[in-house]
Design a protein that fits this description.
- The protein is an all-beta fold.
- It has one domain.
- 0% of the residues lie in helices and 47% in strands.
- It has a 3-stranded antiparallel β-sheet with strand order 3-4-5, with no helix packed on it.
């Protein structure tokens, strides 16, 4: 069984307060969050750990998805909040 990878995010959108949050790849931890009316989900973190060397934070990349919360009327697209 694979372990958990956690990624910390900071979202800044004009007109909204700054939001900092952590998402995880392991199902028992928070994988998805609602911010500004959109659900953001962490799908993957790469590369996987390598036991023979330290991986710097600059080497990591994440894959996210978002979907609108229709009841809120806002959606994040290309880093901008749209109604």
């Amino acid at each position: 069984m694979a372990g958990n990878a956690a990624a910390e995010f900071l979202i800044k959108v004009s007109g909204f307060p700054e939001e900092r949050f952590v998402l995880n790849t392991y199902p028992n931890f928070e994988q998805e969050i609602e911010i500004y009316g959109a659900w953001i989900r962490l799908l993957d973190v790469k590369p996987e750990p390598i036991s023979t060397r330290q991986i710097s934070s600059e080497e990591y990349s994440v894959r996210l998805t978002n979907r609108p919360n229709k009841s809120k009327g806002l959606f994040c697209r290309n880093g901008k909040v749209e109604s």
